[in-house]
Amino acid sequence: MAGNKQVRVAGRPPGIPQAEHFEIVDSDMPAIGAGQILVRNLFLSVEPAMRGWLVDKSNYSQPIEIGSVMRALAVGEVIESRAPGFASGDRLMGWFGWQEFAAAAPDTVIRKVDDTDLSPSLALGVLGLNGVTALLGLEKVGRPVAGDTVVVSTAAGSVGSAVGQIAKLLGCRTVGIAGGAEKVAICRDEFGYDVAIDYRTPGLEQALAAACPGGANVYFDNTAGAISDAVYRQLAVYARIVACGTASVASWDPIPTGPRVERIIMTRRATMGGFVVLDHMAEFNAASGRLAQWVREGKLRYREEIVDGIERCPGAIADLYNGLNLGKRLIRLV
Amino acid sequence: MAGNKQVRVAGRPPGIPQAEHFEIVDSDMPAIGAGQILVRNLFLSVEPAMRGWLVDKSNYSQPIEIGSVMRALAVGEVIESRAPGFASGDRLMGWFGWQEFAAAAPDTVIRKVDDTDLSPSLALGVLGLNGVTALLGLEKVGRPVAGDTVVVSTAAGSVGSAVGQIAKLLGCRTVGIAGGAEKVAICRDEFGYDVAIDYRTPGLEQALAAACPGGANVYFDNTAGAISDAVYRQLAVYARIVACGTASVASWDPIPTGPRVERIIMTRRATMGGFVVLDHMAEFNAASGRLAQWVREGKLRYREEIVDGIERCPGAIADLYNGLNLGKRLIRLV
After folding, report:
1. How many CA within 13 A on the CB side of residue A42?
2. Residues A154 and A269 in one domain
3. Candidates B58, B224, B267; nearest CB to A260
4. Which of A67, A137, A187, B151 could covalently link to A275 via disulfide, CB atoms 3.0 to 4.6 Å apart?
5. How far apart, in whole angstroms, are the C-alpha atoms of residue A319 and residue A222?
6. Distance from CA of A178 to the nearest CA of B (A)
7. Which intervals hold domain Alcohol dehydrogenase-like C-terminal (chains A, B) (predicted)?
8. A155 and A72 in a common domain
9. A224 shares its domain with A259
């Protein structure tokens, strides 16, 4: 019987998870019990949020135990089913972990991937956690109205690029912030931002002021840090901030300092709201369906960076944070 | 003909307004034109918010011009009317300024003070800007539900004391933060807080953790600064922060630094919302009426600190910020 390569957590990362915090283990092919399914993973997902999942502290999810398989979303194919409603050959997206095979309970499945006209890999990116985060975070916390100016940080990223395009579809002006000339060009040419700003060149604040003459009505924040400080100063009255990620903060222990936000929040009567998509899984399928329709109509573009082999998992989270990736990072197994 | 003593703005305060930023001027008794009313002020209000009104910068209200009469709410009596709907003897609460007499347009009137069973001074405090701020800020941004733990800073102050009592009336547990043993005792004995904490004694964080075993569901923030930093660390999931005042921050120029909030906001899926009561003046009368009913029923207590003479105005704002006052500060003129 074939084995099952797994990526297990070898140590708790103090900041951004590095390759050394994981180990690849050759395990036995799992046997499934009654009510379970055996899934062969096709694509494994890599998320910036994995950093938070690995923290051993009060957080929005249970910390992952040292020694266990790394928690991850994956797209896989059912190769054996002892659970009603699932059959061999079904393609599923769910919490199958960084491993080749998963003996899974039905409640780890998020959805069946039955969009046969679209690549199954999309179920992990623009139609998955990233796209759904963009759509629901924007709508629920950002509450954009046509004519609003929407500012997005990590504007070329998997979440940010979807936010910018969806805001545009909703009739907003979009301002993207990204790092480096290549990403800025992609923001403008591929994701349709009205203005794209390179935060690495001097003058971020002036560029933002010029890009938001009436202020920023919505700020979809994937970075926190100095980028956010600059955006806060451009907030319009009644602005909404979606606190969705903190990519630019290398470590939260100890908590870094920055300019206090209370007075801007108060005087602009702004709202800063945290968004974690895992709170909204009941709406996942419907949101994914809306995104798929936009993809089919050519209105929602995406980039994927697919690399082959489970050996690429351990260093993959750190890659997301070094700013080098250009698209949804996926590990292809089959 | 009698004169009209006025308190005019003599200079723009860099931080908290001090007596030197005002001058008392003997002016002529104003003459009213068609459509105006002549109001004799009985009580002048002193607000922490006056600091913000005096700032020469982007803010929620037009900055007050140097040389003009200090913007202030007052309760006064109509002594001459050339405006329909107003008659001599009417008691009014409105934007009549720090002066003895005001030639006022009807749109400066916020409401007629016809609760003859209650002191007219209450129209400036528990039934005025302070009480209405407490009620609407708590309901609109704090959105408490019965059973919630509601934490209040400046818990013994004019706004905070009303927040604590209203939260209690709505079925919440209340935790008040105040400075000094006397205020803490008042919080407990007079305003009914379940727990009152003196932020000046060591161990604020431990005291908060003990007072909020399930976390703080609502934080009504009148201080910002280190007090808020300690409360943020106790926020429950889905907590709501009402950013209503920044009493503990001596100057916002330059913006002081503090621990970044983005990660707490995100992981707790908290919401921080700015509240300025001036956005909600259409609801003022109804809110004031609800507060008056609670006062009549003995369910809503208040403290007033009334001092006599317009000469007490210039130093009155700084008094609010030195933490020595115990109740709504009013200047009685008549």
Report:
1. 18
2. yes
3. B224
4. A137
5. 16
6. 19
7. 159-284
8. no
9. yes
What pLDDT was estimated at residue A58?
Answer: 56
Q: Searching chain B, which residue's CA lies closest to the CA of residue A259?
A: B257
Helical (H) or strand (E) element with B112: strand B109-112
**Among A327, A325, A321, residue whose Cα is nearest residue A302:** A327
Q: What are the tens digits of pLDDT across the range A270-280? A: 999 999 999 99
- Same domain assignment for residues B89 and B138: no
A261:B261 CB<8 A: yes
Classified as helix, coil or strand, B84 is: coil
Tell the residue number behind the tokens 């957590």, with chain if given.
A9
Residues B150 and B273 in one domain: yes
C-beta neighbour count of A322 within 10 angstroms? 9
A120 and A134 in one domain?
A: no
What is the signed CA dihedral for B309, B314, B320, B326, rounded to 10 degrees? Answer: -10
- Write the pLDDT tens digit of every residue in A284-333: 999 999 999 999 999 999 999 999 999 999 999 999 888 777 889 999 99
- Say whether both B139 and B259 belong to one domain: yes
Query: Would residue B83 count as lying in a domain?
Result: yes
What CATH number should be reported for the domain holding residue A168?
3.40.50.720
pLDDT at A253 (0 to 100): 86
Partners of residue A286 on adjacent β-strands: none
- For residue A235, pLDDT beyond 80: yes
The angle subtended at Cα B189 by Cα B187 and Cα B195, nearest 5°, is: 55
Both tokens of A264, joined, read 């801007």
Chain A interface residues facing chain B, Cβ-Cβ under 8 Å?
A: 52, 58-60, 221, 224-225, 228, 237, 243-246, 249, 252, 255-263, 265-276, 279
- What CATH number does the domain containing B24 carry? 3.90.180.10
Task: Determine the structural domain holding residue A226 and report its residue range.
Answer: 129-278
Q: By mean pLDDT, which of A35-44, A89-98, A253-262, B50-59 is the weakest? A: B50-59
CA angle B3, B5, B7 (to 5 degrees): 155
Q: What tokens were used for B269?
A: 């899926």
3-class SS letters over chain A: CCEEEEEEECCCCCCCCCHHHEEEEEEECCCCCCCCEEEEEEEEECCCCHHHHCCCCCCCCCCCCCCCECCCCEEEEEEEECCCCCCCCCEEEECCCCECEEEECHHHEEEECCCCCCCHHHHHCCCCHHHHHHHHHHHHHHCCCCCCEEEEECCCCHHHHHHHHHHHHCCCEEEEEECCHHHHHHHHHCCCCCEEEECCCCCHHHHHHHHCCCCEEEEEECCCHHHHHHHHCCEEEEEEEEECCCCCCCCCCCCCEEECCHHHHHHCCCEEEECCHHHHHHHHHHHHHHHHHHHHCCCCCCCEEEEECHHHCCCHHHHHHCCCCCCEEEEECC
Taking each helix axis as running N to C, give the angle between helix B158-169 and helix B129-137, from 0 to 180 degrees, rounded to the nearest 10. 40
Residue B296 lies in a domain: no
Residue closest to A261 by CA, chosen among B236, B210, B246: B246
Candidate from A247-251, B261-265, B282-286, B305-309 with smallest mean pLDDT: A247-251
| Contact: B246, A237; criterion CB under 8 Å | no
On whether both A48 and A92 belong to a single domain, the answer is yes
Q: What residues pair up with A111 in beta bridges, in sequence order?
A: A93
Contacts 24+ apart (CB under 8 A), B185-188: B186/B156, B186/B303, B186/B326, B187/B155, B187/B156, B187/B161
Rounded Cα–Cα distance for residues A235 and A217 (Å) = 6
**In-domain check, residue B322:** yes
Tokens coding B289: 């009426």
In a domain, A183, yes or no: yes
Helix, strand or coil, per DSSP, at residue B60: coil
Give backbone dihedrals phi and psi of B79, rounded to 5 degrees, phi first: -110, -10
